[in-house]
Recover the amino acids of this structure.
């Protein structure tokens, strides 16, 4: 496209997206950004996925960012569209996911009059997004978009929010385009790599904790090589279990909700923590007490790509500023540590993990489907690159405890505990990787946050599998009620629709499973389907978590 051609703001914006290699956007259409929609009509390079709720669109953009390492792109209309989409922005912020949310905005001349659907996006998203701004002049569209991609992907990745005033989008001008932004790579200082080895050599009970975003296949392999040659135990931070093959003898479990008590004890006893990428948030650090803030009792090496994150919550004995790819590559090149005294430490940590992650036999007094058996079946049958998604709820404890992830970018789960995330994420995953098996896990309460996205899956041809765990309650809150206010159930009972009939009304396949032994055949039928499938699992409402029943709470 010639830079001398006069174009409206919508065409200039879409061209900026094309130049930054955008291939998919997620949206709910709105009149506030009609010029963008019109420009997309003539754009074969970008696929437009129309969702049924702005919150689902932003969650899909987050999932795309997790899968690709590139910003997921979302467009919503002003006012209510922005408030709905804020859900995904908060997820992307806490998950460190690159994402750009474009929001229609009122005409500039109407600002600060509380015009129709007016919101100050800088104020609204200022504490949630990594950067929130508005494009106030048509000639600055390429500049702002280029900066947005740089901010979303550099340092600690995160979401950017951009307001699009109608006069900027509908206006016309001759504006020069800008080529794709190049994000610099931060490499670790050579002396830092040497010091990492020195600190490890003086340790007898080290533990590697891996997390964060910015990994790729090569860096995950490099991390595995480093752990293998040095026989180091590796734990994953909350909902980052796909960063290290859970079948590997060096993997020792996840730190977060539902962690193994043995692993938590081991963290407390460790004399050195090598934390690569994780922020060690509240869930990972167990309310900042297992790993105490500001000064951990364990010696701490903290590797992170953002200087503002290092020494912010935890004082590190060795802070290492580096992208995770660069650190993994450089540390894997080092010769093995000559003397180490932690071989038994690693072996016993692995044994603890295997004991904790092996599903127990079904309880004879419980009715319905045993989720442990479901996880055991999926472990045995799903391919290594299958993508599993979930939202929030006690049902996730079975998934995170018993399923063994094997490959990077196969766990799509919000670290901020956002309900409803699983189905939109599964839609985005299946559309991005149609040849992979994609399975969404959702509780009955979680599923009903965005159930209408079955329509999106059907419309755009995404034959994913949704497993709805139905116990007719908000299980996590009920668990806390039983612990804190026993026998005083309040606001947690659910009266659900007929999920099978509901799913079929969208054109999906669906069936209900009441007995554990019927699940494998139902799942195999879903795998063979060329349309989205839903499997409803009826579970015993007394079984709160794998180890807790309500009569014992």
């Amino acid at each position: 496209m010639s830079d001398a051609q006069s174009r409206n703001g919508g065409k200039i914006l879409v061209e900026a997206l094309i130049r930054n290699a955008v291939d998919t956007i997620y949206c709910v259409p709105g009149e506030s950004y009609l010029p963008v929609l019109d420009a997309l009509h003539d754009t074969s390079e970008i696929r437009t996925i129309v969702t049924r709720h702005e919150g689902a669109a932003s969650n899909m953009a987050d999932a795309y960012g997790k899968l690709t390492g590139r910003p997921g792109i979302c467009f919503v209309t002003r006012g209510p569209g922005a408030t709905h989409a804020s859900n995904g922005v908060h997820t992307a912020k806490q998950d460190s996911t690159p994402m750009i949310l474009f929001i229609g905005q009122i005409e500039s001349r109407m600002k600060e009059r509380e015009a129709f659907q007016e919101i100050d996006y800088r104020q609204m998203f200022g504490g949630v997004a990594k950067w929130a701004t508005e494009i106030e002049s048509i000639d600055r569209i390429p500049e702002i978009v280029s900066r947005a991609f740089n901010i979303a992907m550099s340092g600690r990745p995160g979401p950017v929010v951009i307001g699009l005033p109608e006069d900027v989008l509908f206006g016309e001008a001759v504006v020069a385009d800008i080529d794709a932004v190049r994000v610099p790579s931060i490499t670790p200082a050579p002396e830092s790599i040497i010091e990492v080895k020195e600190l490890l050599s003086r340790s007898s009970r080290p533990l590697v904790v891996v997390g964060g975003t910015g990994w790729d296949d090569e860096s995950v392999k490099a991390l595995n090589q480093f752990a293998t040659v040095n026989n180091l135990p590796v734990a994953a931070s909350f909902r980052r279990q796909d960063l290290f093959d859970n079948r590997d003898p060096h993997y020792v479990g996840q730190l977060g909700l539902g962690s193994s008590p043995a692993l938590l004890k081991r963290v407390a006893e460790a004399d050195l923590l090598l934390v690569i990428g994780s922020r060690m948030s509240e869930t990972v650090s167990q309310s900042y007490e297992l790993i105490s803030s500001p000064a951990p009792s364990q010696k701490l090496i903290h590797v992170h790509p953002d200087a503002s994150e290092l020494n912010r919550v935890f004082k590190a004995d060795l802070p290492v500023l580096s992208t995770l790819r660069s650190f993994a590559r450089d540390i894997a090149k080092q010769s093995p540590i000559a003397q180490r005294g932690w071989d038994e430490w690693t072996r016993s940590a692995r044994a603890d993990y295997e004991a904790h992650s092996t599903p127990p036999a079904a309880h004879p007094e419980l009715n319905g489907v045993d989720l442990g058996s479901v996880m055991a079946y999926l472990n045995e049958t799903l391919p290594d690159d299958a993508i599993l998604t979930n939202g929030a709820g006690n049902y996730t404890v079975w998934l995170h405890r018993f399923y063994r992830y094997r490959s990077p970018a196969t766990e799509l789960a919000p670290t901020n505990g956002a309900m409803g995330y699983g189905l939109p994420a599964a839609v985005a995953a299946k559309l991005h990787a149609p040849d992979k098996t994609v399975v969404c896990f959702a509780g009955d309460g979680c599923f009903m946050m965005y159930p209408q996205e079955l329509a999106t899956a059907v419309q755009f041809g995404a034959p994913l599998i949704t497993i709805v765990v139905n116990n007719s309650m908000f299980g996590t809150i009920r668990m806390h009620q039983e612990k804190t206010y026993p026998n005083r159930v309040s606001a947690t009972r659910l009266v659900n629709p007929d999920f099978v009939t509901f799913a079929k009304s969208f054109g999906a396949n669906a069936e209900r499973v009441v007995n554990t032994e019927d699940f494998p055949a139902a799942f195999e039928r879903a795998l063979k389907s060329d349309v989205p499938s839903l499997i409803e699992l009826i579970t015993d409402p007394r079984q709160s978590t794998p180890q807790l029943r309500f009569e014992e709470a």
Notes: The chain has a mean pLDDT of 95.
